[in-house]
UniProtKB/TrEMBL annotation:
Annotated family: Belongs to the MgtC/SapB family.
Pfam families: MgtC
Membrane-topology descriptor: Multi-pass membrane protein
Protein name: Putative Mg2+ transporter-C (MgtC) family protein
Cellular localisation: Cell membrane
Annotated organism of origin: Terribacillus halophilus
Length: 231
């Protein structure tokens, strides 16, 4: 039994526990923001990459000692971990029209993989310092963006427009463009036997004068009704 519960095992156990706490701290921050990759995902990535680093460091020492001609390369497995973790990050990225969500979470998953490798290599203080930096970036810079960059972000705006069945939508697009409304998505379906319903998702950085916009749209002869769609 002592051959299993030796100093090396205690070192490995210590590394995995540290990986759980540090990657879990980052995952908890992501989970509190209702992101797709939360506490469990980050812990699994951190512990898994730590385990791969441990395997690379200790898994082949006995074999290399028995065979003098075998070269030992501890960086080989970690290099594949860093490149292979990308598929998990890609799974957290969501694209809806021109809106992209999940990039920060994908980056945190990739960073946690690196954190696990650092812990597995025994660089504990570096791992703790990096975790603090990551948490500061995720928490405080997020608030900074909300305070100072919110005015520069695109605001979503949705309209339902009922128009005659055979009429062109070109005049509608001209009015929307004149009001600095960029088209993000558009759907059209049959509404009644002689009309269509046009659903447009728009984005803008400017304030919207709804009264003026609605007046211009309803002045078009082929428009029957215009209404906003709540998010």
């Amino acid at each position: 039994m002592e051959q299993y519960f030796n100093d090396q095992f205690l070192t490995v156990m210590f590394k995995i526990i540290i990986a759980i706490f540090l990657s879990g701290a980052i995952g908890m921050e992501r989970g509190m923001g209702n992101h797709h990759a939360g506490l469990r995902t980050h812990i699994l990535v951190g512990v898994g990459s730590c385990l791969m680093m441990i395997l690379s460091l200790y898994g082949f020492t006995e074999f290399s000692e028995e065979h003098a001609y075998v070269r030992f390369d501890p960086a080989r497995i970690p290099s594949y971990v860093i490149s292979g973790i990308g598929f998990l990050g890609a799974g957290t990225i969501l694209v809806n029209g021109t809106t992209v969500r999940g990039l920060t979470t994908a980056a945190s998953v990739w960073t946690v993989a690196g954190l696990g490798l650092v812990i597995g290599a025994g660089m504990y203080m570096e791992a703790v310092f990096t975790t603090i930096i990551i948490l500061l970036v995720l928490i405080f810079l997020n608030n900074f963006e909300k305070l100072f960059l919110s005015s520069k972000k695109q605001k979503a705006y949705r309209l339902d427009i009922e128009l005659d069945r055979e009429e062109s939508i070109a005049p509608i697009m001209e009015i929307l463009e004149r009001h600095h409304l960029a088209l993000a998505n558009m759907k059209m379906k049959k509404h009644h036997h002689d009309s269509r319903l046009l659903h447009v998702e728009l984005e803008t950085r400017h304030a919207i004068n709804e009264i003026e916009l609605f007046e211009e749209l309803t002045d078009l002869t082929n428009i029957r009704s215009v209404s906003t769609v709540k998010s």
